[in-house]
UniProtKB/TrEMBL annotation, chain A:
Residues 21-202 form the Nitrile hydratase alpha/Thiocyanate hydrolase gamma domain. It comes from Dongia sedimenti. The gene is nthA. NCBIfam families: nitrile_alph (TIGR01323). This is nitrile hydratase. It comes from the Bacteria. GO terms for molecular function: nitrile hydratase activity. SUPFAM superfamilies: Nitrile hydratase alpha chain. InterPro entries: CN_Hdrase_a/SCN_Hdrase_g_sf, CN_Hdrtase_a/SCN_Hdrlase_g, CN_Hdrtase_asu/SCN_Hdrlase_gsu, Nitrile_hydratase_asu.
UniProtKB/TrEMBL annotation, chain B:
Residues 121-218 form the Nitrile hydratase beta subunit domain. Transmembrane segments: none annotated. Keywords: Lyase. GO terms for molecular function: nitrile hydratase activity. This is Nitrile hydratase subunit beta. Belongs to the nitrile hydratase subunit beta family. NHase catalyzes the hydration of various nitrile compounds to the corresponding amides. The keyword Iron-sulfur does not apply. Its EC number is 4.2.1.84. Residues 1-108 form the Nitrile hydratase beta subunit-like N-terminal domain. The lineage of its organism: Bacteria, Pseudomonadati, Pseudomonadota, Alphaproteobacteria, Rhodospirillales.
């Protein structure tokens, strides 16, 4: 269908000749859908802008930081995570039925979707490529310590690992352990220590002094 | 179905490769693929379970060699053709060749924020009591349906414990196939790593999956 001099371009170019076949197919599909009146291309722009600028892991970091600081909030998260997260304004698609899972000294939690790419969009935004790709989905349930090693994380041997395979519409947010040495920190400051990976379980919260 | 989507426990894919400072999208077409998928979903011609089934019925070699947005796009093309919205001839021609089918109106840009903020809850009331209680020993069914299911192969015929009751939800196994929502109770069922993977497995590993009641039988 197309002359492929550069079949594996990862980044977009306006020059159509350099686009991979899938990009051309999506472009053709969009124009047919618009022509038939099924979609409004401006709606796509708003969707993209939402996940590029409004909905991302900063949301989840605020939930975690508040849970670290406010025992009453943590209790509400345990009771009804969807409602407690909605208190901070984070609701909606792929976050309709939220659950939190809390890391402790004894147990580390890791979230995966082996069957597709279920992920708590409302608090973490769109999933990274690795989360949706075969290596993670295959390995997380059988060798989570190996997955953690791929992320440079080594837990004590005696720490249990609980993997949550998101097979239904419940969406899991990991509450990482609060780093030592952060007593008295504000929620804003704490939120800077909460990485996306720490809320999936493939990472830990940053140590004080390590925040970007 | 036992398709390529059911990846838990497979080997040979190599390490997980996180990308430092990964961009939200890697190419312009990925943005459009996300957008057309969500916008077409809003036409009301199918549900999320139908979409997942369309993706998992890709040929396994195709599924495993496609990026996730490619999988979404290929699944969408199947659904559009199956529902008579966009024919394969139109895709090949790159333009519309027939009048549009009557659907819900197109999702408008102005309505996107509200639509994304409300999402699509799939909990449903159910007027019968759950059969299982927290702490119950259960066994997952050994089943190999040719249609859609959310019970992964690695967790079939395995003994686990009910850790929580999660409410009643749409049942994907029927909903994916136009057979109704047929709400069912969902439980968090926890399996020991050694039950799933054998005696050599990490003794500190446990795996929780969300099981609809029809997936379970008493242990």
């Amino acid at each position: 269908m197309h002359d492929h001099d550069h079949p594996h371009h990862d980044h977009s170019h306006d020059d159509g000749a350099a686009l991979p076949e899938i990009a051309l197919r999506v472009k053709a599909l969009e124009s047919i859908l618009v022509e038939k009146g099924y979609i409004d291309p401006a709606a796509i722009d708003v969707i993209v802008e939402t996940y590029e600028t409004k909905v991302g892991p900063r949301n989840g970091a605020r939930v975690v930081a508040k849970a670290w600081c406010d025992p009453a909030y943590l209790a509400r998260l345990r009771q009804d995570a969807t409602a407690a997260i909605a208190e901070l304004g984070f609701t909606g698609r792929q976050g309709e039925h939220m659950r939190i899972v809390e890391n402790t000294q004894q147990r580390h939690n890791l979230v995966v979707c082996t069957l597709c790419s279920c992920y708590p969009w409302s608090v973490l935004g769109l999933p990274p490529v690795w989360y949706k790709a075969a290596p993670y989905r295959a390995k997380a349930v059988i060798d989570p310590r190996g997955v953690l090693a791929d992320f440079g994380v080594a837990l004590p041997k005696e720490t249990e690992i609980r993997v949550w395979d998101s097979t239904a519409e419940l969406r899991y947010l990991v509450l990482p352990l609060r780093p030592a040495g952060t007593e008295g920190w504000s929620e804003d400051r704490l939120a800077d220590l909460v990485t996306r990976d720490s809320m999936i379980g493939t990472g830990l919260a940053l140590q004080p002094g390590a925040a970007a | 179905m036992n398709g390529a989507q059911d990846l838990g426990g497979m080997m040979g894919f190599g390490p997980v490769l996180p990308e430092k400072n990964e961009p939200i999208f890697h190419a312009e077409w990925e943005k459009r693929a996300l957008g057309v998928t969500l916008c077409c979903g809003a036409l009301g011609e199918w549900n999320i379970d139908t979409s997942r089934h369309a993706r998992e019925t890709l040929h396994p070699a195709d599924y495993l060699s496609s990026s996730y947005y490619e999988i979404w796009t290929k699944g969408l093309l199947k659904l559009l053709a199956a529902r008579g919205l966009v024919s394969r001839e139109e895709i090949a021609a790159g333009r519309s060749l027939s009048a549009p089918k009557a659907t819900r109106p197109a999702l408008k840009a102005a309505d996107v924020p509200a639509r994304l903020a409300s999402g699509g809850p799939c909990d449903r009331p159910l007027d019968r009591a759950p059969r299982c209680a927290v702490g119950d020993q259960v066994r997952t069914r050994n089943m190999n349906p040719t249609g859609h299911t959310r019970l992964p192969r690695y967790a079939r015929g395995k003994r686990g414990v009910i850790e929580a009751r999660q409410g009643s939800f749409v049942f994907p196994d029927t909903n994916a196939h136009g057979k109704g929502e047929d709400p069912q109770w969902i439980y968090s069922v926890v399996f020991k790593g050694q039950e799933l993977w054998g005696a050599e497995s990490d003794p500190g590993l446990s795996v929780a999956i969300d099981c609809w009641e029809p997936y379970l039988e008493p242990a």
